[in-house]
Amino acid sequence: MLGTAVPDESYESLADWPFGRRNRALAELGLGCFGPNPDAWTSCTRCGEKLEVEVDFRNLVNGAMENGSRRHGEPIVVKGRSFRLPTSRDLALAAKETDVRSAAVRLVATCAVEAGDIPFWSDEDLEEVGEGMALADPMAEITFHFSCPACGNEGNAGLDIASFIWEEIAARARRLISEIHCLASAYGWTEGEILALSEHRRALYLEMVQA
User: What is the number of other CB atoms lying within 10 angstroms of the CB of residue 152?
Assistant: First the structure.
């Protein structure tokens, strides 16, 4: 998806982008493809009720632009050790670990600016490094507030923007294939002929077929 959104960058380069920069580019892609407010749903953490939530790609893009200059390029310093912001490549390495704490240690160790073993790995140390990274890269983690009308539970949920946009793309692709099948069956047109129609004209033909 990033390769499509930023065609001038190589995949190798994109894999080394900090999360916030990556998420901003994905938000811009989502804004261009699906508009500012795509349908989004989550589940209540208490009762499991399906909840509609508001995702505004414009706010995500604008928020990333406002925060983009904060501590740009500056390392996160904890107990005299410097750490850079994590990237997608770092996360892929951490995902190979078998438990959450080992993954956190692997992620922080990978982001250490100076080579060599880190002598401290208490939970407090890991949390301090994580908080420093979150402050330096506010768009790295996207959350939204929810309120459940069924049980009254309120809380925050995370948005994995990459998965969200990929699911939107997959859903639209399935719908387009269905439209092609419907029009091809009705009129005998080829796939190329159907795709050459504007979205508006294709919708009009579909309405007549379904009527």
Answer: 10
N- to C-terminal Cα separation, the chain: 37
The pTM of the full predicted model, rounded to 2 decimals, is 0.83
Distances (CA, A) of 18 to 6, 21, 133, 185, 207: 15, 6, 10, 47, 45
CA distances from 67 to 12, 17, 112, 135, 136 (A): 25, 16, 23, 10, 9
In the block, tokens 């790995």 appear at: 121
Q: How many CB atoms lie within 10 A of CB 116?
A: 8
Q: What is the pLDDT of residues 29-53, one digit of tens each?
A: 999 999 999 888 899 989 999 998 8
Cβ proximity of 144 and 157 under 8 Å = yes
Q: Which residues contact 191 (CB under 8 A, 6 or more apart)?
A: 180, 184
Identity of the residue numbered 1: M
Q: Of the candidates 101, 145, 154, 148, which has an alpha carbon nearest to the alpha carbon of residue 126?
A: 101
Query: Dihedrals φ, ψ of 54, to 5°?
Result: -95, 120
- Crossing angle for the helix pair 19-34 and 57-67, to the nearest 10 degrees: 150
